[in-house]
Amino acid sequence: MTAKDRRHQQVIKKIRQIMTDINNEIMTYQRMPVLVVPKIGYDNTVWSDEKKVLTIGTKTVQISPDSTKKIPTFAQYLVMANAIRQLLDEEMESTIRGMYYATLSTVGDEKNKQKFWNSQENSDDAIKALELLTGVPREEFSVTSKPKGMLSGPITLRVGGDLIDCNLGSRATSQLIPTNVRDLEIVEVKADFVMVVEKDTVLNNIRKSGFMQKYNAILMTGSGEPDRATRMMVKTLNEEWKKPVVIFADADPWGLGIALRYKIGSESLSYDSERLVTPNAQVLGMMFSDIYNYSIPEVARLAATEEDINRAFDMKKKPWLQEKQWQKELDLFLQNKEKCELDAFFKHGFKYLAENDLPQKLRESGLI
Amino acid sequence: MKSKVALKPKDSSIRSRHSSTNILQEDKRRLIRYDRKAESEFFVDNSALAGFAGERILYMSVRELIENSLDSCETNRILPSISVSLKLIDPINDMWCISCTDNGVGIPAEKVPAAVCSFLTSGKYVEKQQRGLFGVGLKMIAAFSSKDTDHPLRVWSKSPDEGTEYYFELRTDIGTNKPITLIKKALKETESSMRGECGFKIEAILRARLSPITKNKIYDYINQTSVVNPYSHLVFETDEGKVVFNRNTEILPKPAIEVLPHPADMDLKTLKKAIINFMNQKTTLQGVLCNRFQKLSSDKAREIIGLAGIETKPADKYDEHELIRVVNICKQTKFQAPNTDHLSPIGEEILTAGMTSENVIVTRKDPNPTEQSRAQLSLKALKPALTAYSSKSGIINNRPTIVECGIAYGGDINSFKLYRFANKIPLLYDEGSDVAREVMTEVEINKMGISKKEVKEQFSNQESKSDRAIELLPIHIFFHICSTKIPYKTAGKESIASEPELKKYMKSCLTDLYRKVSAQIRRELRVKEAENRLRLYNHYIPLIINAISGSIRINSKSLYDTFSKLAEKHINGEMSDNHAFKKIISTPNTTESKGLTMLEGEGLERNPDFINKNIKGTKASSKNKVKYESNKRRSKKKVLTNDQITMDSFNKSKRKEK
Fold first, then answer.
1. I need a labelling partner for B333 at 20 to 30 A (CA). Which of B102, B305, B459, B506 fits?
2. Mean pLDDT throughout B464-478?
């Protein structure tokens, strides 16, 4: 048995255990089975001051067919569990969307037809719940999502069996970060540090400018909200390869939120922070104060929406944003009600961001 | 309405056919001519005024004939037996034969031709509630038949005073509004078709088209008529078949009695008419007032004349200037509320009988269509599980008005429907702009003791288009408004305007009704809830069993049986607290679940142990947890809401991703 097989066997064993328990509950004890799943979300997310990451709390949700509302959910979890078992038995791999389709069906008779899933969101939730029920991350189910993350720079990866040098001389494109991390291995890292930016457009701009070569950096982006593979990659580079990580995102509450995903984790994935979060990463920009320090012209600033403001108020109360620096930044935002995208630096010239702003920030932080 | 100013060239061209045709040719300057037009011609030219427009000719004909029959029976408190037939006799020329037979009072023989053919000759011009008001319907049928066909109108009539049945063949002379009697004969006993002491039958050929929509409207009309007239025996026959609505009660509604006008409603016309009708040499104005108007005592009449400041003389000697002062004083004076003897509400007993025996006409297609096979008509009884009735009366615009409201719920009723009646006539068109629709929307469903949320949970399905909670319920709501002056919105008399006063009465009536049924509806809702739940189990248990049997080896059949029994028991509430719930699987402690690093498998070696330990641990401790779990269950509701909040915020944050 290969290692891979053994891992599969183990997941299958766990799924079977869940099924057996439910069967026993009904057949032997004659009572309604209950699945107890840790609750996901902000009210079950705990800030660990010691580790500086978000972790999951102790609240749980009980999923049992004894409640009308939960009957469908209970069935969904079991159907998904069986589908994952089948996927592993067949040694196949699937995206989360694939799992949605594989388990799609209609429920009910002619008169009362219902969809088994209302949308893919439901099936994604079921997969999450199974991660929690089995204690196994999604990748171990051979269930992945569409790759979003990209990287570029002096780093060599082995994807499947192929060696890939991401230090692409042509500067033409970036390497996608595969979502199935089991297929991925970092072979060599020559860079001095890792720079994560929020969006791929900014990443492309910086790559074209020759910034990577000049400062010997790896450039990464999660294309907005980073997926798990991107977060894990950042963590590995930082913790296993001891490369400092800096993060640049837009100067708005969402941007700040995305930057913090890498650094402290997120509420919806707080149960997996141990694998995903890089507490040592530094969020360098773009700060709200940068709008004024770098004199971004008024035309390039955007008015904050009501949603932005609400979110900023929300963030101000979060225990992980109590440091003076963050409070000051948020106050500044709430006072001026202006936000700004990294792209706004293009107003100063296309190379300004890569040649002036970023180096200065990096110097300030002592990285170069 | 008796004369019409002809202004439009179109009108003059029509007229030129039967008046002198030379004028236009001789004089090139167009003269405006003032002609008199016969009532019949006016109504035929403006048939839409009476609702006889294009598509609706057959619908209106059925309607007018049935309403005439019902009115005719009710006049003498006869339990109505009515038979209507509508058949296509010549498909190429769209010729239809419509006939209607009743056991009403008929029409005295010498009045028949005029009553059938001459417009504005009617027994309906009295101050009491009747279905028909204008007496136009029958004449329209006669005129259309004369206009479009060469067939005579065939009429059989037997009035109780005469005791002989007469047969007529009639046509209308549209140009003069006069009947043409082709045949009139008294039938011998052997030739007589009527068994009872009186009756009326009419048969007319009409040229018309019938679209499926209008056809359904006719069926709907018959249905609804049978609901508010459960004391009538109604037979309806078409090319598609024949249905019989049996008499469901012997009770007749309180008859409407003609009343005197109310003084608050007085105007110059009413006053002058009262004087002329009551006049003899010695009559004083005071006498006219207190004898020809209701709620006016002799003292009050004197007081009014005094206030008007006019001298005493015989009533017909006053001029209009004097009379208008009397009218003005009457408008300013307060009188007792008008009496309601001229109104005839349906009444609780009758409407309840109608609602409990509600039938719908079902068109059934032949499963093995042959050349002769046609859709067959049949009746389906709805047998509602509960009905309720409520009524309110009051004065709206000086006219007494009675609002009645009924609810029928459940049974084989499977969707919401609003029934509107005005003076016992079903209103079928233009529901959207009717006051009843507004009332429905404005009275909250929670008056019924149930919440919108509950209703939506139990009743909404993909077919339901409306998101109004009340429209998801299997409920029929009936509104009946009776008054001698219904505030119709349009000339077509299909919807009632939203008069604030009327609306207020309707709302309070409906609210009252909601309260009455609340306890029962709640019970029904609970039954429905249990049904839904059982259905949910029936749908989901097979999925659950499949999932389990896909992963482990089990006896699917016996798991299915046990699970189903468990579910049923659970629904029946037999689940006692002793059956504690057990936690099956606890979650791994996240701090321990570390180890699946991305690149190397070393952490995995730890995992099997960890998993085994974890599940064992759960099992071992589960017995101790039992009590705790069952306690926790009681606070389940709270957990649920929390869970929802969590998922919401989770989804929200997802949407925000760029």
1. B506
2. 81
